[in-house]
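New to this. Please check this record:
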Amino acid sequence: MQSLDPHKIEGVPESNVSRDLFEGLLISDVEGHPSPGVAEKWENKDFKVWTFHLRKNAKWSDGTPVTAHDFVYSWQRLADPNTASPYASYLQYGHIANIDDIIAGKKPATDLGVKALDDHTFEVTLSEPVPYFYKLLVHPSVSPVPKSAVEKFGDKWTQPANIVTNGAYKLKKLGGERTYRAGA
């Protein structure tokens, strides 16, 4: 596995593991349809401004709450050219406001069209109406990452001793290139 960082994963194996370790706003149900994840509900009036209401009981594996601020940080990190995410373009598919200029280095990642209205309300502004936007949110690259762990450990934040997750499983051990051990 190249990385367990949702913003640096490149292939299907990493994506599959990431889905177990990190929960995004939406997840895929058993039939592959988008369903509530960290967001218990969402709305939009014009397919351009999307508002997501987060579950108040969503927690990181260290016990701290998952908040809208985590999604703001994570999506800005995903967009930031310094992160060099192979999936930064995924935000372009959703036409998130300012994403093209951010990827091109013309604007800072903090100008991305995302904001926390409060701890449990995340708002995304698109540059044009995108009716299918919510369907893009099941992709693991748009999962939140814990700012405190990323800043404290840098590229080593995904090592078993350092990783903080919000999904169904917690990483216990990495074994070689193809194995990992997760525990609930």
The first helix runs from residue 12 to 21. The helical segments are 12-21, 68-79, 89-93, 99-103, 133-136, 147-153.
